[in-house]
Design goal:
The complex is a heterodimer of chains A (501) and B (345).
Chain A: H1 3-14, H2 20-35, H3 41-49, H4 57-69, H5 71-82, H6 97-102, H7 106-131, H8 135-140, H9 144-155, H10 158-161, H11 166-180, E1 183-184, E2 191-192, H12 206-225, H13 239-255, H14 257-272, H15 278-292, H16 304-328, H17 334-345, H18 352-357, H19 359-390, H20 395-412, H21 417-436, H22 440-464, H23 472-500
Antiparallel strand pairs in A: 1-2
Chain B: H1 2-34, E1 38-43, H2 50-66, E2 69-74, H3 81-88, E3 96-99, H4 102-110, E4 124-130, E5 134-139, H5 147-152, E6 157-161, H6 167-179, E7 183-187, H7 192-201, E8 206-210, H8 211-219, E9 223-228, H9 243-248, H10 253-269, E10 271-275, H11 281-296, H12 298-306, E11 314-315, H13 316-327, H14 331-341
Parallel strand pairs in B: 1-2, 1-3, 6-7, 6-8
Antiparallel strand pairs in B: 3-10, 4-10, 4-11, 5-8, 5-9
Helix pairs in contact in B: 2-11, 4-10, 6-10, 6-14, 10-13
Classes of the chains: A mainly alpha (501), B alpha/beta (345).
């Protein structure tokens, strides 16, 4: 089957009557899961797998991947409207989404987020389609030395995120790195910072940490402050006004197409790298948006570019993440592992065989991501109104309801009560960081990338010896990293001198 | 006299009838007990792995043959020990069962790793889903054509592994201990899929793993199986030699055979489904039958075949014997395995 044949066949299968309803219900299901804090794409897929046994391959793929692809959109809604990340990958949206809501621009933020998600996902899916002929080589490009340097490069984005207060950002990032070390070290089998607790032996899971740092902390603050979630506006926006704002927001995302494109590219590349996941991708894209913006000062205070960058990247990740799964049947994330077992159940095998004989299946996946996100965008728009009304409910009513949802979300991902405790502890840490003005984003980047940096450094040393970074590809990446750091340090020094003068 | 005979007959009949009733009543209680109840089926790993897939594959058939609702609960952590401990220490009402990673649970128990709150031999086994067929896969680009090549290699052969003391690691070092070959274990990968990627890239030469994880690479021509761990051969790898053959060619064939035998016993524990100790016998017997019927359900067999999933059913009694022999090792063999698991080898 040639690629063009596969593409046409895949497209017509994806919109056929036997598949489209499944795609539709999958997308709505994913959107709902995304809106609920703590339930992530990997949870949506795990639930969807159960239904696959009676489905045809095309329908099954559409249902499974449809559910997975809209989760970030739902999560973005919650992030903007309730200051609570619906899923881990929406944490970066919190930096500029809620401030926009407080400025009375909730509709704009949501519109921009939904559209950027759609554009980002489409970019990732199209990139995957274009890469099909060379997919194997692209996936094999990333070994431990390359991943080490790239993760390190991503880590340096802390410098951009925390430009205003470098000392505090570095403290937060280093704290994040320390948190990443908790648990039994994979290399030496030594327990680190576990305090003798077997619950800490596997380290901290990402979901409760994110929920605590951002969602619980927000609830604590809201409770102490009183009033309603939407700070600036006393009355909810009218339905009509919200609608207007949404369309304006969608327009904004399209007008910032160059930014969307660059942030989607960041997301796709980070998706290609196994083990990094989409939360750091969104933060790196956010950092990139901030760095290249003319109006750096307003980031964190409600700049729509911050929302666009983060949301475009976290959905573009999917296209990249699918690459290694399709090319070799090697899953790069837990969601992809579930997709893989879903495909097994449907009687499909990934790997070279799929690329050669069943390329139409690959295109069903690609079109599912695009169409699923389109459905998510349209339905997301209808959800904004009822949800945004809830943001003007007073805190004494809102906090208990949201907190119980958050706690349930923290419990559900691993059925672990310990995780609920983690979320609450990190809620206090997050609250303290917020009032003391430490960057929670920097902490999260340190936390997520710390493990990848350490593990790949060790593997590189074992495989290529102490001079592993002198191999051509890692060396190039190293030079880029150093150049990037140099530009940033230069920028910081220049700003300082300017403020002195 | 006649009256006496009649009386005796009557009593006898009564006894038979009542006995019959009571035995029927008993059999019914187990079936009745499970009818409409919820069985919690623990999977000790996150959704999406092989264990999860097997569990979800068999779930509908276990429901069909037990009359109960089966809920799959993923309790991951400590390399599967958390879930295994959860099953072992569950209430003894027979409503909690689960699948365990046999070999890893046995080795963690032997090494007395903290968190191993179970005794493998004391589980009530419902049966085994599949044995763990261990194979050594090398990249077809590695230049290693046969196991003899690898054993004779002057340069260290790089074998990838997950964590220190994980099964891919233990396999590699135990085999090196027996064969005395020149190798270097590159450990620290997260999960066998990462090791496979490193193998495809050529960062490492080979890896020990289950047949299931190597199968796809063999099919696509990227991997070659050099040797496998079943003494009596295995249909999956019919034309591949077994390690026992090579064990005979070492300086100390008896010792080699003993170590390899103990190692094979571990893989035979495979992936059993177990209930905690102390569950009433009639319920265990009922669950064992239900599990056996599910494993032999033609529809299930077809589904498993379609999904490319190996099966090698073994009943509860057979499983118990295997678990016992795998945990009862002679002191020096045990010391060897404990050293391997602790990463001291």
């Amino acid at each position: 089957m040639t690629i063009v044949d596969g593409m046409t066949s895949g497209f017509f299968q994806a919109i056929s009557i036997g598949v489209l309803p499944y795609l539709f219900s999958g997308a709505i299901f994913g959107l709902a899961i995304g809106i609920i804090p703590g339930l992530s794409g990997h949870f949506a897929m795990a639930m969807a797998v159960t239904f696959l046994y009676s489905m045809e391959p095309g329908a099954g793929i559409a249902f499974l991947l449809g559910a997975h692809s809209t989760v970030a959109q739902g999560g973005g809604l919650t992030a903007i409207l309730f200051s609570t990340p619906g899923t881990g990958q929406n944490a970066a949206t919190l930096l500029d989404g809620p401030p926009m809501r407080d400025n009375g621009q909730a509709g704009v933020a949501v519109g921009a987020a939904l559209a950027s998600c759609f554009l980002g996902a489409s970019f990732g899916a199209i990139a995957l389609a274009l890469l099909i002929p060379v997919l194997k080589d692209v996936v094999l490009f990333f070994g431990p030395p390359e991943i080490f340097v790239l993760a390190f490069l991503a880590l340096t984005f802390v410098a951009v995120l925390g430009k205003e207060d470098m000392t505090r950002s570095l403290i937060a990032a280093l704290f994040g790195l320390l948190l990443a070390m908790i648990g039994v070290d994979n290399v030496t089998n030594t327990e680190r910072f576990t305090l003798g607790s077997s619950d800490l032996a596997d380290g901290l899971s990402l979901v409760p940490v994110i929920l605590g740092l951002f969602a619980v902390a927000e609830m604590v603050e809201l409770w102490l402050r009183g009033g309603s979630l939407a700070k600036g506006t006393t009355i909810a926006l009218s339905g009509r006004e919200t609608q207007k704002q949404i369309f304006y927001g969608i327009g904004l995302a399209f007008r910032r197409w160059w930014l969307v494109l660059r942030c989607s590219a960041i997301g796709t590349v980070m998706g290609l790298i196994p083990g990094l996941g989409s939360a750091p991708a969104a933060f790196v894209a956010y950092g990139h948006a901030k760095q290249t913006s003319k109006d750096k000062e307003s980031f964190g205070k409600g700049n729509v570019e911050g929302v666009i960058g983060a949301e475009a990247a976290n959905d573009a990740v999917e296209g990249g993440a699918l690459a290694s799964t399709i090319a070799f049947g090697i899953p790069g994330s837990s969601s992809m592992a579930i997709l893989l077992s879903g495909l097994f159940i449907l009687g499909l095998e990934t790997g070279p065989q799929m690329l050669n004989d069943k390329v139409d299946i690959v295109f069903i996946m690609i079109f599912t991501i695009i169409i699923g996100n389109l459905i998510g965008t349209i339905f997301g728009m209808f959800l904004v109104n009822p949800l945004s009304r809830a943001t003007s409910i007073r805190a004494s009513m809102m906090v208990p309801v949201l907190l119980s949802i958050i706690v349930t979300g923290a419990y559900a991902s691993e059925s672990s009560l310990f995780d609920v405790g983690i979320a609450l502890v990190f809620g206090m840490i997050g609250f303290l960081m917020k009032i003391l003005n430490y960057s929670r984003a920097a902490l999260l980047i340190g936390f997520v990338l710390g493990f990848a940096v350490e593990k790949n450094l060790y593997l590189s040393l074992l495989i290529d010896g102490p001079l592993f970074f002198l191999e051509p590809i890692p060396l190039t990446l190293c030079l880029i990293t150093i150049g990037f750091l140099a530009i940033n340090i230069y920028g910081i020094i220049r700003d300082r001198q300017r403020s002195k003068a | 006299m006649r009256r006496h005979i009649l009386k005796a007959l009557a009593i006898g009949m009564l006894a038979t009838v009542s006995g019959g009733i009571s035995s029927v009543a008993q059999a019914e209680t187990a079936a009745e007990f499970y009818s409409g109840k919820n069985i919690k089926f623990i999977v000790p790993y996150k959704p999406g792995g092989g264990y999860d897939e097997y569990a979800r594959l068999i779930e509908p058939y276990l429901e069909k043959h037990s009359g109960a609702r089966v809920d799959i609960v993923n309790i991951s952590g400590s390399g599967g020990m958390k879930g295994a401990s959860e099953i072992f220490n569950a209430p003894t009402d027979g409503l909690t069962i689960g699948i365990i990673n046999g070999a890893a649970m046995v080795t963690s128990e032997l090494a007395e790793i903290e968190g191993a709150a179970y005794k493998v031999a004391e589980y009530n086994f419902l049966g085994r889903v599949v044995a763990d067929h261990r194979v050594l896969a090398v990249s077809t680009k590695s230049g290693l054509e046969t196991y003899a090549d690898m054993l004779a290699s002057d340069k260290p052969v790089l074998l990838g592994a997950t964590g220190l003391g994980g099964s891919t690691y233990v396999d590699a070092v135990i085999l090196a201990e027996v064969m005395g070959n020149n190798q270097k274990v590159i450990h620290g990968f997260t999960g066998s899929s990462e090791v496979r990627q490193a193998l495809l890239r050529g960062d490492i030469h080979g890896m020990w793993g289950s047949w299931g994880s190597a199968r796809k690479g063999v099919k696509s021509g990227d991997f070659r199986i050099l040797v496998h761990g079943d003494r009596n051969g295995n249909p999956n790898t019919a034309d591949v030699p077994t390690v026992f053959e090579f064990g005979q060619k070492t300086g100390n064939p008896d010792h080699a055979d003993e170590v390899l035998g103990a190692w094979e016993a571990l893989s035979l524990v495979g992936r059993p489904v177990a209930a905690p100790p102390g569950v009433p016998e009639d319920r265990i017997a009922y669950l064992q039958t239900a599990f056996e019927n599910a494993m032999k359900d033609p529809e299930f067999l077809e589904k498993a075949n379609q999904a490319g999933r190996d099966l090698s059913f073994l009943d509860g009694a057979g499983m118990k014997a295997i678990a016992k022999s795998a945990t009862e090792l002679s002191p020096d063999i045990k010391a060897l395995f404990v050293a391997a698991i602790r990463g001291e080898l």
